[in-house]
C-alpha cells in the first residue's frame, strides 16, 4: 500500500514539473524577430537623437542636444550635461544585445513589471524615434526583460543599467574646463590684501616670481594651487540672489588665471566666516538667607556661542564674453567643497621658504 502511494506521488510530481516547464519556458515566436541578436540601441538611431528622457519611479530627466552637438540638462536649469555620462548610457545600450524573444502573451506580459522605467529618444522635431521600457530581472540569472515602444512583445537582454532620475546628477559639475597645463600665470591673493603673481614660460617650466630678498619660491606649491583651481566642481546650487551666497561673496578671495593663449579666468571663493556671539547673561540665584542679598549676588562669567562658518561658494568669470559659464553665473550660485577653500594659501609664507645660506 505504501509503495503504491509513493509511486502515485512521484508520478504527480513529474506531471507538475512538466506543467511548470511548459508554462515558464520562452515562447517560440511565429517568425524570428529581426531584433534578436542585435544591439538594444543602434548607433544610427543615436546619431538622430536630439532629446533623451530617462524615467523611473515617477521621476524623469530630460536632456537636449544643442546645435553645436553638446548636451544640455534641461531639467536642471539648462546647465551643460555631463557628456561622459550621456555617452556611457548610450554605450551601455549599444553594447547590450537583444538575446531572445520572451512572450507576446498579455497575461505573461503583465507579470514582467513593465511600468514607468524607461528611456526614450526623440529627434529635433520632438518626434519619438526609439523607446525602451525596462521590466524586472528574471528569477534566474541577471539582465532585464525589455519592451520596445508600446509593442505587446517582451524580450530578454543581459542589460545592466542604472536609471538615474536625479536632475542634478546629469549636470556637468565642472566649473573650470581649462587644464592646469594651459595656465601660464596666476595671481594669488592673501589674507590682509597682499598678493603674489607667478608665471612660467611653458607648461613644463618652473614657476617663477619676484619675492622679498632671502625668500625662495616653492614651485610645487604653486602647481598645487593651479590644480586645485582648475579642478573646481560644484556640489550644489542655489538661486543667484540667495542670501547665504550674497553673504559669502562679501568675504571672497579672487584668483586670476591666465592661459598661454591670453584668456583669463577670475575664480572667486568665499564663505561666511565662523562667528562667536555673546550669550545673554543668566543671573545667578540670590541667597535668600543672606542679610544683604545684593552683596551676595555674583555676576556670571560671560558665555559665547559659536555660529559655524557658512558653505563655500565659488564664482568663475571668463574674459570670453560668449563663454557659457558667464551666463550660468548669472542664474545660479555654486557651492563647492570646504577642503578646496581651506587648502588655499593664506599668506606668502605658504608658498615660499627662506633661502639656505651658501
Give a quick rundown of the structure.
By secondary structure, the protein is α+β, with helices and mostly antiparallel strands. It has helices spanning 2-24, 43-47, 83-95, 106-109, 219-230, 243-249, 293-296, 324-331, 338-342; strands spanning 51-56, 59-65, 71-73, 79-80, 98-103, 118-122, 128-134, 144-148, 154-157, 183-189, 195-199, 215-217, 236-239, 253-259, 264-270, 275-278, 304-307, 312-318, 332-336, 352-354. The chain contains nine helices and 20 strands.
- Spatial ordering of strands, largest sheet: 4-3-2-1-6-7-8-9-5
Which spans have pLDDT < 50 for at least 5 consecutive residues? Answer: 6-16, 18-24
> Whole-number radius of gyration?
33 Å
Count of individual beta strands? 20
Total number of helices? 9
Mean pLDDT value:
88
Q: How much strand?
A: 25-35%
Order of helices and strands: HHEEEEHEHEEEEEEEHEHEEEHEEHEHE
Main sheet properties: 9 strands, antiparallel
Rough shape? extended
Amino acid at each position: 500500500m505504501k509503495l503504491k502511494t509513493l509511486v502515485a506521488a512521484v508520478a504527480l510530481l513529474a506531471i507538475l514539473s512538466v506543467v511548470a516547464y511548459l508554462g515558464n519556458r520562452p515562447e517560440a515566436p511565429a517568425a524570428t524577430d529581426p531584433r534578436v541578436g542585435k544591439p538594444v540601441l543602434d548607433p544610427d538611431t543615436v546619431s538622430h537623437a536630439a532629446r533623451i528622457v530617462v524615467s523611473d519611479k515617477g521621476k524623469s530627466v530630460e536632456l537636449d542636444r544643442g546645435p553645436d552637438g553638446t548636451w544640455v540638462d534641461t531639467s536642471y536649469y539648462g546647465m551643460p550635461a555631463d557628456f561622459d555620462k550621456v555617452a556611457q548610457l548610450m554605450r551601455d545600450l549599444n553594447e547590450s544585445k537583444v538575446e531572445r524573444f520572451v512572450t507576446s502573451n498579455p497575461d505573461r506580459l503583465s507579470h514582467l513589471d513593465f511600468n514607468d522605467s524607461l528611456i526614450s529618444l526623440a529627434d529635433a522635431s520632438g518626434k519619438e524615434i526609439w523607446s525602451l521600457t525596462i521590466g524586472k530581472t528574471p528569477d534566474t540569472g541577471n539582465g532585464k526583460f525589455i519592451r520596445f515602444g508600446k509593442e505587446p512583445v517582451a524580450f530578454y537582454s543581459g542589460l545592466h543599467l542604472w536609471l538615474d532620475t536625479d536632475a542634478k546628477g546629469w549636470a556637468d559639475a565642472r566649473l573650470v574646463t581649462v587644464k592646469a597645463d594651459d595656465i601660464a600665470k596666476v595671481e594669488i591673493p592673501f589674507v590682509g590684501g597682499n598678493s603674489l603673481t607667478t608665471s612660467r614660460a611653458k607648461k613644463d617650466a618652473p614657476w617663477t616670481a619676484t619675492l622679498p630678498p632671502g625668500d625662495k619660491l616653492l614651485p610645487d606649491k604653486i602647481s598645487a594651487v593651479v590644480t586645485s583651481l582648475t579642478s573646481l566642481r560644484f556640489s550644489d546650487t542655489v538661486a543667484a540672489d540667495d542670501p547665504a551666497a550674497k553673504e559669502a561673496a562679501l568675504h571672497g578671495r579672487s584668483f586670476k588665471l591666465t592661459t598661454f593663449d591670453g584668456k583669463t579666468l577670475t575664480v572667486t571663493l568665499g564663505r561666511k566666516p565662523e562667528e562667536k556671539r555673546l550669550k545673554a547673561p543668566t543671573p545667578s540665584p540670590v541667597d535668600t538667607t543672606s542679610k544683604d542679598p545684593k552683596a551676595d549676588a555674583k555676576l556670571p562669567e560671560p558665555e559665547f556661542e559659536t555660529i559655524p562658518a557658512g558653505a563655500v561658494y565659488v564664482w568663475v568669470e571668463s574674459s570670453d564674453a560668449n563663454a557659457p559659464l558667464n551666463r550660468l553665473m548669472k542664474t545660479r550660485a555654486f557651492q563647492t567643497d570646504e577642503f578646496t577653500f581651506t587648502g588655499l594659501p593664506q599668506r606668502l609664507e605658504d608658498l615660499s621658504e627662506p633661502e639656505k645660506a651658501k
